[in-house]
Here is the input.
Amino acid sequence: MGVYRIVPLFVLAFLAGCDSPPPPAPVPTVTPSPSPTYAPPPSSGLSLSVGPVEAGLGHRASVLTLTNRDTRPRKVTGYPDLKVLAGDGTPLDVKVEHGTSYFARDLGPQDLTVQPGATVVAVLAWSATVTSGDTRTGAAISVVPVPGEPEQKQPLDTDLGTTDTVTLSSWAAGIGG
Here is the structure.
């Protein structure tokens, strides 16, 4: 009779263990795709730096600053050669227009002499408008400041909406003048 009393308790304890939830499933780890790294601006020659993105009423802009790090004056004229890059560093199919934007007046191509340590600026602007279709986002820009100079790549988030167009002003001594 004692065995009959112990067996139900053993079975009951065994079945109680069956009600516990299974261990949680392992969480998959996401390995991000490698993104390109960009070299710091050159310490000599013409050195590009990119300002923060400014926003207003659906428009965006960033000031591109070109510093003469040489010991002699440098000639700068016209517009920088610019491409918008995807996260993997490949160029996006984005139209680059030259002219005035919501953020900056374009004075047109000028012949500028940039003294050692001095700077000139250009404004890159775009609209984040979304009408229909897929939105486009850039992760960086590639800039050739003047013909014959090496390309310089800098990170810059560009939420282009569905416009696929940016507006670039010419190099100037200052914004709007």
Summary: The helical segments are 2-18. Residues 130 and 161 are 5 Å apart (CA to CA). The chain has a mean pLDDT of 85. The two ends are 104 Å apart (CA to CA).
